[in-house]
Amino acid sequence: MSKIFKIAAAVILLNVFCYGDSLWCPDLHTDDFVNLADFAVLANNWDKSGSGLKGDIDGNGTVGPPDLEYLIHYWLKSYECSSADFNLDYKINFKDIASLANLWLTDANSINWDEKYDLDNSESIDLGDLSIICRRWLKTYPKPSDTFVSFKNALAAGNVQAAVSFFADSVADDYTIVLTEMQAVLPEMANGMGQLELIYSDDNVAQYEMLHDEGGGVISSFPVYFAKDPNGIWKIYCF
Fold first, then answer.
1. 10: which of 18, 181, 202, 210 lies 20 to 30 Å off by Cα?
2. Are 145 and 208 in contact (CB under 8 A)?
3. Burial class (CB in 10 A: 0-12, 13-18, 19+), 20
4. Each residue of 160-176: pLDDT tens digit?
5. How many CA atoms lie within 13 A of 137 on its CB side?
6. Which domains does the chain have, with CATH numbers?
7. What is the pTM of this model?
8. Distance between CA 105 and CA 127 in Å, rounded?
C-alpha cells in the first residue's frame, strides 16, 4: 500500500466516522474560554434559523435548547476552537507567526485564502488572529504518540480500564470487550509494540504506522489512527 493511499484512507476514515456529526465550537467569543461572553452570542441568535449562525453548535440550522445544553457542558472550561500550531510541532512559537505572516491581511476573497489561519472566524487574517497566537505563546500540546505511550504502559500493567480510557468514546466499549478477553496476554502484547512512524497528521486526525514483534523473527506493521475529542485530547480511534 502506497504512502499516498494510506494518507487518503486515514483522512476518509477519521472524517467519516469521527466527524460525520461534528459539533461546532462552544467558544463563540473566541477567547479560549467558555463563559458569559459565549452565552451572550448564543442568546443574540436564540431561536433563529439559517446557515452559519453563531450559536448553532450542533449544526442543525437553528439556535435552540440543544446548543445551550452543549454550551453548559463546557461552561467555565478552556476550549480552543482552532489550532494555532500551523506547522504541527505541538507548540506555539515563531514558526507559527511566520506562517500567519505569509497570509497577513488576506481575506475570504483572496486567491491565497486559507481559513485555518482565520482563528477568530472573522474572514480576515489580521490582529485578531495574531492576538490569539500571542495568548497561546509558547504553549505546548500533547502528541498522539504521547497518548500511545500511556496506552502501552496501561497494557503492560494489565489494566484494561486504564487502557480503554485512551480510546475515543465511540469505540471504547468495543475495545473494552476485546482487551478484557486478552487481559492475560496484554503485558506480552505491549512488550512487542515498536515505535510509531508518522504517516499523516492535521489539526484533528493523525495516522501512524507501528511495528510489532510477532516473535520468531517476524515483524509486522499496521496503522494506528488517532482523533481529537471535543476537549482537544488525542484519542486512539482504530488500533
1. 181
2. yes
3. exposed
4. 999 999 998 889 999 99
5. 6
6. 86-140 (1.10.1330.10), 144-238 (3.10.450.50)
7. 0.69
8. 9
